[in-house]
Amino acid sequence: MSCVLVTGATGFVGRRLVPALIEQGHEVRAMTRHPASYDGQGEAVGGDVFDAASLEEPLAGADVAIYLVHSLDDDDFERKDAQAAHDFGVAAAAAGVRQIVYLGGLGAEDGDLSAHLRSRRQVEGKLGEGGVPVTVLRAAIVVGKGGISWEITRQLVKNLPAMVVPKWVDTRTQPVAVDDVIRYLVGVVDHPDALGRVFEIGGPEQLTYLEMLQLAAQEMTGKKVPIVTVPVLTPALSSRWISLVTDVDVTTGRNLIDSMATEVVVTDTSIHDVVPGDTVPYAEAVRRALAE
Known about the structure:
Largest sheet: 7 strands, parallel
CATH superfamily of one domain: NAD(P)-binding Rossmann-like Domain
Order of helices and strands: EHEEHEHEHEEHEEEHEEHEHHHH
Strand content: 15-25%
Oligomer: single chain
Helix content: 25-40%
């Protein structure tokens, strides 16, 4: 088995991924800026992708590095994330890492990508600039307790008896359960057929954001939430509205909402050749998130 470094080990995906990798027999290093307070599984190691000098020690001897870091809560996130990804890729190459795995975002290559999705795509390239093969898993909304997009959905349904929403709620997306994301991440680690490839991952259904809200409401309350669509509601206004109704900050909300006018669905199912298995339907993913 491999020595795997997980960045963002205390985050939404990372804290689930570390024990899943250990269960498969991997030696896991959990990279965090505060290793002394880390209480999860694996070996806690100190490191910060935004501090290039701190990366040498956690990467030393690692076979695979999984990159789960972003700075959506920063107004300058595109520049910061690009620089961090470049530095990490170079440091990984210097350490002899043989694979970097990155969880990115769906969206057509020729589409008009938002700043958020454009940054995710840029990070893919920057991670490979040191020469280490990068395996990319592109996902849309990841459904699970603690995921920002899911928390927006859950808190809107919980806190509002009715909603006025912009027309982007009719945009299609392909939500994926966090359990499936973990399964795919574990499955591509050190897999020879995954090196240097981009995979699209999603659940079994393509849904509009409106359908997702209504399905979530059905699972949470047993009934539909009255929703009125308006033709104009800017990302800035939408993000302020979301920050009032949920605990998601304005900057993060705006950066996510900017992406919601872009259709993000799976067009390539080749991931199933490398990591076979059925995916979790949206309603079941919602039930699992609520059960947590």
